[in-house]
Amino acid sequence: MLKRSFAVALALVMVVAVFAGCSKPAVDTPAEGKSDKYGGIFRMAVMSDPPDLDPVHATDTSSSRVLYQLFEMLVDLDSEGEIVPNLAESWTISPDGLTYTFKLRQGVKFHATTENGTPTANGGRAVTAEDWVWTFNYITNPKTNSERAYFLDMIKGYQDYQEGKTDHLAGVRAIDDSTLEITLEYAFSPFIAVLAYNTFVVLPKEDVEKWGAEFNFHPVGTGPFKFEEWVQDDRVVLSKNENYWRTDADGNQLPYLDGIEFKVINDLTMEWTEFTLGNFESIEELDDPYYHEALSKYPDSFFERPQMGTYYYGMNVTLEPFKDNKKLRQALNYAIDRQGLIDLVRNGRATPAKGVLPPGMFGYNENLVGYEYNPEKAKQLLAEAGYPNGVKLTLQYNSSDAHKRIAEALQQQLKQIGIDMELKNVDWGAHLDSVERSEVPFFRMGWVVDYPDPDNFLYVLLHTDNFGPNGNYTRFSNPEFDRLTKEARVESDPEKRRKMYQEAEQIVVEEAPWLFIYHYTTHQLLQPYVKGYELPSFGAYSAKYYDVWLDN
Amino acid sequence: MSTYIIKRLLAALPVIAGVIAVVFILTTIVPGDPVRLMMGQRGDPATIERIKEDLGLNKPLWWQFLDFFRRALTLDLGKSYRNNMPVTRAIGQRIPLTAKIALSAMAIAVIMGVTLGIISAVRQYSILDYGSMFVALLGISAPTFWVGLLLVVLFCVKLGWIPGTGTGDGSWIYLVLPVITLGIRPAALIARLTRSSMLEIIRQDYIRTAWAKGLSERVVVMKHALKNAMIPVVTIIGIQTATMLSGAIVTERVFSLPGIGRLSVEALINRDFPVIRGEVLFLALIFVFTNLLVDLSYPLFDPRIKYDR
Fold this sequence. Notes:
Low-confidence stretches of chain A: 1-33
Number of helices of chain B: 13
CATH superfamily of the largest domain in chain B: MetI-like
Low-confidence stretches of chain B: none
Strand content of chain A: 15-25%
Radius of gyration of chain B: 24 Å
CATH topology of the largest domain in chain B: MetI-like fold
CATH class of the largest domain in chain B: Mainly Alpha
Helix content of chain A: 25-40%
Shape of chain B: flat
Oligomer: heterodimer
Number of strands of chain A: 21
Number of helices of chain A: 16
Structural class of chain A: alpha+beta
Order of helices and strands of chain B: HHHHHHHHHHHHH
Mean pLDDT of chain A: 90
C-alpha cells in the first residue's frame, strides 16, 4: 500500500486526492436518526500520566494518545498506515525531490476556548500558511530544545539555524495564506511520512507565547477535542471542539462525542476489573492473563492486528563473545522456536520475526531467507563458533513481567542446545544507558516505528552513522549495508528503493546482530456499544476519536 | 518552650542538609541519564548536550548542591525534568489527597489500635485478648497490595458497594478502601504496643493503690493506666503518621491515587532529579515536624517532662 504512495508521491509532480471530510466510514451506521450518534463521554483507562501535552516535547505513546485528539499535522496516516491529507489538502513535489508545496485546507480554526470556556489567546482564528512557518521555526529553534526537531534535519537551513548562524529556518516559507513551501537540503524519500509524526502539528503563536513553558499544561491546537483539565497522575479531560472542520459522510459536524476522559489506572488487573464493571469504554492494555476471557466476553469489540514493530535481543558485535563470531550469533537464531514462544507466553498474539522489517511495512520481504527453528544446526554452529560444550551468556532486560516471561521461556529453549542464559534485569533508565554506552553484550530491545518507512528501521537502528543514542545499539557496521540504506534515503523510484531495502535486510539477517524474535501486535478493547472505531496499524495509541460514537 | 522549639529546628538544619547531600550523591551514582530518558528511546546527541547545558547538569555536583539550597531558601525547588512543572506545585497538588488518606487512616488506626490494645491488656489471656492479638498479627503480616486487591475484589467486584478505584467523582466513597488498606498495619502495630505498654503499667504499685482506693475500672484504666502507657504509643503514632504523609506508595498504586508516593516512584523511574530532591526535602521536613510535635505532646501525658527551661 505504501509503495503506491511513494510511486505517486515521488514520480515528478503529483497531487494527492482531496477528501473533504475524508475519514473512514463509521463501522455501524444506524438507518435512522444521525443525531443519535451525538453525545457521551469516552472514558479510557491508561497506564500512566502523559508527561507532555506540548507536542513539541512529547516523545512517548502516553502523550501521543492525547495529542492526536488536540493537535493536527499536515498529513496523517490512515488505519492501514497509508499517508492521507490532513490539514494539507494536497501537495506537489518538484522533480528533483527537493521542494514540497502544500495546499492548505481552508476553514481550519484554532480552538476558541479551553479549560471551562476560557477564551484562548488566538481567539479561534483560522490557520494560515504563516502559522505553519512560525511553528516549524519554533520547533527547530535551538532555544526550544524540541526532542524531535532533529527529525527535520533534512530541511534546508536546519543546521545553520540550530548552530545559531541564521535567525530562521530557511527552507520553510508561505507562498500565500493557503500555500506552504518546504525546501529540503537533500532529497529525502520518507519526508512526507516524517510529517505525519505528532510533533509536527500547527500551533497558535499567541497561546504558545502567552504560556511559555506552561503551554504544556494549557495546550491549544486545532484538533477535534479541546483541553479541559489535567490532574497529574489522575486524569486528562478533553471536550468537543464545536468549530472542528471535519464532517461525516452526511455532512454532520464531527466529533460525535462530547468529550474524552483519560483516567490513569496504573495496574493492568485493575484496568481489566474496572472495564468489566463498566467504568470505562476502553482500556489501554489487555493483559495476557485476561485475554481469553476478553475474547469470549467481548468478541465483537476486541480489536487486534499486526503493528509496525519488532521485538529483539541485540548482540553487541564489538563485545565478546559476539565480536567476530557470526556463527555464535546465527546459532542463537537457529536455537529458538519463535512460534512456540509466541503460543506459550503471548497467547499467539505476535508474528514470528524472520528479519527486521515487520509485515505491512513498505519493503517487507515475504521471501526473506530467515532462520527456522533447527536445534541441530544451532548445535553445529555453536561448535563451529568455538563452543562445542556450550556457552554462558547474560541477558540484560528492563524490568517488566512481560519481558521476564519471554526471557524465561527463551532461557529454557537455549538450554536445549547448551547455551546457559543468565537473566539480569535493571530499570529502563539504567538499561538504556548501559546498552548505549556499549557496556552490555546481550540485551533486550524493541522498536516501533516513528514514521512508517523502512528507513526508520534499517538506517536508524543499524547504520554506522547511528551508533549509540541514535539507535544502533549493537554497533553493527557493514559497508555494503551502509551504502544501500544511505542511497535508499534519496532514491525516488519506489521499486528500486524496495529492492535496496530488501538487499540490505538480507545482509543484516545473514550477519545476525540481532536475535530476531517477533513482530508486535497492537490491540484495543472497547465496550460493545462503542461504534465507528478503527484500530490503526501504527498502534492503538494513534487512534483518533473524531468519528467514534456511543450507541447507548 | 519557644527556645526549645527554635533549638530543635536549628538542630534539624544540618540533618536536612545531610539528607539532601546523600540524595545528590546517590542520584549521580545511579546509572541512567535524565536527559537521555526525556528523549525517548532515541535521541540526537546535539540536543541531549544542549538540554544538559540548559539544566545545569554539566556543572560540578557541589555547584548544583549549593544552587539547590540557594534556591530552596526562596521556595524554588526547580522544575520537573519530565513535564516542566515547578516542583513545589507538583508536591503541593498532591498533599491534600495524601494528607486526607493518611490522617483518616491514622485516626482509624488509633481508635481501633488503642481500643483493642486496652481490651487485650485488661482482659489478658482471655478469648478477647487472643482474638484481637491474632487479628493484629494478621494485620502486621498481610502485604498491603494483597489487602488492597482483596478489598477491591470483595467490595467493588463481588458486592458492588464501591464503584471503583481512583478518585472517581471526588466523593468520599472512593477513599474508603484506601483508608482501610492503609490503616490496617498501623492499627495492628498500635494495638500490640498499647497492650504491652498497658500490661507493664497495670502491674505498677500506684495502679494497685488506685484499685485499693475502690476506684471504678473505667477510672483506673482510662485515667491512671492509659495516660501513662501512652508515651511509647504516641511515639509510634508520630513515626507512622510521618511515613504515611510522605506517601503510601503501594496503596496509591493499587488504588491509582495521585498522591505523594506515586510522584516519588515516577520521579525515580525517570531520574527526575529536581522532583526527587524536592520530595526528599519534603519528607525530611515532615519527619522533623512530626517528631517535634510528638516530643511537645509528651508533657500532656507525663507532667514531669518540661521544656521551658
